[in-house]
Amino acid sequence: VAASFRPSLTASSAAKDAMTGCNKKILLKLKLSVAEIEKLTQEIITTTTEVLDSVCAVQGDRTFENTIAPMAKLATDMTPLITSCDFPMHVSTDEALRQASGEADEALRKFQVDCSMRIDVYEAVKVYEEQRKQRGEKLGAEAERLVERMLRDFRRDGLALPEDKRNQVKELKKQLSEKEVLFQKNLNEDKTRHAFAVEELEGMSEDYIASLEDAEDGKKWVTLKYPDILPLMQKAKREETRMVMDKLKATQCEAVNTPLLEDALNIRCQLASLLGYEDHAGYVLEERMAKRTGAAREMLTELVAKLAPFADKEVLRLKEVKDAERKEMGQDSDGKINSWDFQYYHTLLKEREYSVDEEKVKEYFPLEVVKKGLLEAYQTILSLEFTQTEPHEPWHEDVEMWEVKDAPTGAFMGYFYLDLHPREGKYNHCAVFGLVAGCDMAPSASDSKFGEVERVCPVAAMVANFTKPIKEKPSLLKHGEVVTFFHEFGHVMHQICTKAHFCEFSGTRTERDFVEAPSQMLENWCFEEEPLTKMSGHYLNKGEPLSKELRDNMIRSKNLNSGLLNLRQVFFGSFDLAIHTSGPKVDTKEVWGSLREKITRIANSSGGNGSASFGHIMGGYDCGYYGYLWSEVFSADMFTIFKASGNLYSPEVGARYRSCILEPGGTVDGDVMVRNFLGRELDKNAFLVSNGLQ
């Protein structure tokens, strides 16, 4: 219940698919006005309260049907309605709507805290479980897992505490939610930018410069949005230009978000103490694959030891490249790789030693060609069929909608949206939003066979910021953006392919340190010969795919500076754990600066507090960033199964992957899913091999 609230809507049974049970009706309202968002928010609160009150008012024996099922049904019914209220803050073109959506999100988060702290609901579930065991009643595996999770979450929310401490927990959670919402709002609404004269953008392509907004005196605005800042840091020849943007990025939202973050750390520390945990990291990791803070920290420490020798050599090589370039330009070198240098000299090294020029490479990756190849790959591997359809209540003209069917049977499975280009006020990274959770409409205590009961169809949205087309030129993706597209679309498939009975376990609702593994595994297709050929086609030269030489060089360059790049991820994970295990008062700027230089081997040249724009730690990934590397260990080994088959597009291996990894959602622990897919125990060395380190 605390995980997702959403009035009971019963869709027409005429729209139900005979094989999957999925109802094709989309239970989303994505064109609400400000007043309608406010009204629906209140309706969600009222309906949820009524259902929980009715559960608590049950007289006589408690059963699954009168205690657990109504709350599971409530979560199913409320999901699309909550999405209707809180999704617009990420994608709407109307500032007033984004504001109203953000306020709705904040109100629903506060209400969620209220519900999670209802002692009467906790007592109702606890009494039910006691009576069930006394009666000797058996539940289906998924229903039993649900009840266990509910009781665990009640305990983690402080319901087993005395009333005075429960009230403290409730108040602290409300304060924490307010700070997290405001932190993200500040990032979304940030308008930091700098005007450069065209000559200051030396090294940038004509297309890039043309894509920038005009400023006064013939200058061009460069923002901190990824389509602006990332290419500049990679290609801008003038060090002063890169330095300006690096310093702006290093201090983004620092004044407003640093106090919010440090207040949140204090609150999290207080909450952990009240709930009986040593620190916030111990609280969070209890329900992750790692289980213990020590396990996550050990993994990161081991990686530093293995990666450092490679990284140190890579830094020396980058310095050589920098010194040589500065000499060519008749300028002195400071002999350091500064924070504004790494991306530039990494790119230059890639061009000089591997003949991979990203500006030339992206000419082979028009968005529509990449999208066609990507969709074909996923359809073939997972035995699916995608058909573009008229979008249901689109929020922008760029938005596409696709219907998904199971290819062998033609059975309907769900829908996904694609919203791929940047605009003012939009979420400024790449992410997949699970708009509607695929699950049974009427929760049952038994494990029914998939398709036997009517299901809510899953709906997901991929939100990205790929460069928009300009004039007669299409949107062109850098290879890194192709990788991102492949990764994020993997999350879409995780949402769509779910066979979970309960909303609680649908799609990506698995352990946070496992959830990235399925998508990370699929990134590997972007470094293989056949997929690269199928996803490329020069936008001018009659769709000619990548040449063998360029393709091979791209594959060879995959692990360029892999020591440094992986240490960057280790730094983010280590910083996340450090600030959540250091007590109530943390100087985040000091920790950020010291750990960055110590771990990454790159100077923290611009100073600033980078954690003020580190959205993960205030957006639900607190104590979870280590999970990107943790899950990559699993993903690397899973990919070996596809490689060993001799066919990266193997429907047979894909069917096994879909069955073992994507369909279970959170109904099975991540390590069990991986073992089922591999047919053996995990080989951790696959990660080192994948990164060219062994």
From TrEMBL:
<dbReference type="InterPro" id="IPR024077">
    <property type="entry name" value="Neurolysin/TOP_dom2"/>
</dbReference>
<protein>
    <recommendedName>
        <fullName>Peptidase M3A/M3B catalytic domain-containing protein</fullName>
    </recommendedName>
</protein>
<dbReference type="GO" id="GO:0006508">
    <property type="term" value="P:proteolysis"/>
</dbReference>
<dbReference type="InterPro" id="IPR024079">
    <property type="entry name" value="MetalloPept_cat_dom_sf"/>
</dbReference>
<keyword id="KW-0482">Metalloprotease</keyword>
<keyword id="KW-0378">Hydrolase</keyword>
<dbReference type="InterPro" id="IPR001567">
    <property type="entry name" value="Pept_M3A_M3B_dom"/>
</dbReference>
<keyword id="KW-0479">Metal-binding</keyword>
<dbReference type="InterPro" id="IPR024080">
    <property type="entry name" value="Neurolysin/TOP_N"/>
</dbReference>
<keyword id="KW-0963">Cytoplasm</keyword>
<keyword id="KW-0862">Zinc</keyword>
<dbReference type="GO" id="GO:0046872">
    <property type="term" value="F:metal ion binding"/>
</dbReference>
<feature type="domain" description="Peptidase M3A/M3B catalytic">
    <location>
        <begin position="233"/>
        <end position="692"/>
    </location>
</feature>
<keyword id="KW-0645">Protease</keyword>
<comment type="similarity">
    <text>Belongs to the peptidase M3 family.</text>
</comment>
<dbReference type="InterPro" id="IPR045090">
    <property type="entry name" value="Pept_M3A_M3B"/>
</dbReference>
<dbReference type="GO" id="GO:0004222">
    <property type="term" value="F:metalloendopeptidase activity"/>
</dbReference>
<dbReference type="Pfam" id="PF01432">
    <property type="entry name" value="Peptidase_M3"/>
</dbReference>
<dbReference type="GO" id="GO:0005758">
    <property type="term" value="C:mitochondrial intermembrane space"/>
</dbReference>
<dbReference type="GO" id="GO:0006518">
    <property type="term" value="P:peptide metabolic process"/>
</dbReference>
